[in-house]
Amino acid sequence: MSRLGNLGARLYRGEVGYDFIGHRKIWYGVSILITITAIVGLVVRGLHMGIEFEGGAVFTTPKTSASVQQTTDAAEKVSGHQAIVQALGDGGKRIQIAEVDTKTSTAVKEKLAEELKVDGNKIDAQLVGPSWGEQIANKAWQGLGIFMILVVLYLAIAFEWRMALAALIALIHDITITVGVYSLVGFEVTPGTVIGLLTILGYSLYDTVVVFDGLRESSKNVTKQTKFTYAEIANRSINGTLVRSINTTVVALLPVAGLLFIGGGMLGGGMLNDIALSLFVGLAAGAYSSIFIATPLVSDFKTRTPEMKALARRVHTKRAKAAEREAHEPDGTPDDDGDEDEDGPRADRAGRTAAGVSGQRRQPPARGRGKPSGKRR
Questions:
Q1: What local confidence, expressed as pLDDT, does residue 11 receive?
Q2: Are 321 and 334 in contact (CB under 8 A)?
Q3: What is the biggest distance separating any 2 CA atoms in the chain, rounded to whole angstroms?
Q4: How far apart (Å, rounded) are the C-alpha atoms in residues 86 and 74?
Q5: Fewer Cβ close by (within 10 Å): the C or N end of the chain?
Q6: How far apart, in whole angstroms, are the C-alpha atoms of residue 234 and residue 215?
């Protein structure tokens, strides 16, 4: 078995692990800090909406010797509006200019050809009306709202309302971080961005459901035992699925990273950046929230219930008694207090007692021991 597989097996059995629940306040603080940074960036810088939402024109030029900055200056000069230029892999430029309609697009195209010294017939122009972009934006918001409602209903029915609430908070956390990164980086928001957001929300939900399913199985009849508290069971559940979550996240991030950094950065595939960035940030944030946010939130919600508070008191009381017995009995032989749970502690204690006295066999008393033999030595 590989080292990672061996680690996963040890995590699943509870032999090793990280105390996610015990350190949850640290991760809550990290998430709050990242979220506040994303919101501040969104408020200060705003989102750079693509022409699909605001309307305008996109001009794709053939290969030109002009740089991105020179092309931007030329486009803003001939159109009178702000322009966004992206370098393409074949040496051409993609020029996006807002507020350009059908009447002015031809004149802008001809002036661009003169400024960039290219053939005007080889410049491809595409126009997008603002009304179409508004429809796309409304459809995106409707799709996001319907998705959230269905997620909450499914989790509330399949699991419980506390898990549904924790998953909803985790999803909002992922959306906020992804949108905030878009604002800070300055990438334009396109329909591809919306598709990427919906994709990463589905992935984040899948990862969360996997952890929740393990937690549900581990916490069956949890109040009938006194070995672990609910928080400890939740922590064991996270550790049991940790390697699986890491593996699936890394496998998903590798092709997206290639799409973003190699395709979009090195090869100049600028049109791939919108969907690649949302996928990359969203996948990483989704895996993070499933482990560090969603399950710790469920643990916080559940441990506040009267049943789990009573369970925690029983567990701590039993451990205190066991510690007191060990302190008074150096030989390590525990007394049977009659407390039984579903894991069979009586048998377990009997096994430990037998193991503790092995090698110290006692001889039966002699029949004549204690009677004088009448002989002196």
A1: 57
A2: no
A3: 134
A4: 14
A5: C
A6: 6
pLDDT tens by residue, 241-252: 887 778 888 888
DSSP 361: P
Instruction: Tell me what the mean pLDDT of segment 337-353 comes to.
Output: 42
**Going by C-beta distance under 8 Å and a sequence separation of 6 or more, which residues neighbour residue 232?**
21
Per DSSP, the residues of 301-354 read: HHHTSHHHHHHHHHHHHHHHHHHHHHHH-TT----------TT-HHHHHHHHHH
Token couple for 355: 């193991």
Which residues pair with residue 57 across a beta bridge? 97, 127
Phi, then psi, of 89 in degrees rounded to 5 = -65, -25
pLDDT of residue 81: 78
354 token code pair: 């037998």
Give the containing element (helix H, strand E) for 57. strand 56-60
| Closest by Cα among 241, 280, 284, 248 to 261 | 280
- Could you tell me which residues come within 8 angstroms of residue 83 by beta carbon, excluding any fewer than 6 positions away? 72, 75, 76, 95, 96, 97
Rounded to the nearest angstrom, the gap between the alpha carbon of residue 105 and the centroid of all alpha carbons in its chain is 44
Q: Burial, 361: exposed, middle or buried (Cβ in 10 Å; 0-12, 13-18, 19+)?
A: exposed
Model pLDDT for residues 195-221, shown as the tens digit of each residue? 788 788 887 888 888 888 888 888 888
Burial class, 274, CB count within 10 angstroms (exposed 0-12 / middle 13-18 / buried 19+) = buried
The residues, any chain, with a CB within 8 Å of residue 45's CB and separated by 6 or more, are: 183, 184, 186
- Is residue 49 within 8 Å of residue 86, measured between CB atoms? no
pTM (predicted TM-score): 0.69
343: pLDDT confidence band, cut at 50, 70 and 90? very low
**By percentage, how much of the chain surpasses pLDDT 90?**
9
DSSP run (H or E) holding 86: strand 83-87
- Residue 357 in 3-state DSSP? coil
